[in-house]
């Protein structure tokens, strides 16, 4: 039952967008800063927390899993349409907010690969 995950997805997306808008205003950038990423993080954390509490039925868990799998391609498509020109013209903070996580992610890949091999 796919419909069961929609309420959780809508809640996480709304909270993520509000947080991204607030963070953008706080940093002085006239754009949403990380709202989509916050929403994805909230969805993963909240669904895992509910699963550990035993608050999810099998149908609800299947619905959330469906939306977890659908969410990433949808968000990538949405992020691709964002106004890059506005972000670049907004100054150094906008550029650093995009550049620093990419560099840190690339630097963390070798470490994560080694950790994954040790656990297997």
Automatic annotation (TrEMBL):
A GO CC annotation given for this chain: membrane
Pfam family, one: MadL
Spans traversing the lipid bilayer: 26-46, 66-84, 90-112
Keywords: Membrane, Transmembrane, Transmembrane helix
NCBIfam families linked: malonate_madL
Name of the protein this chain belongs to: Malonate transporter subunit MadL
Gene source species: Arundinibacter roseus
Annotated gene: madL
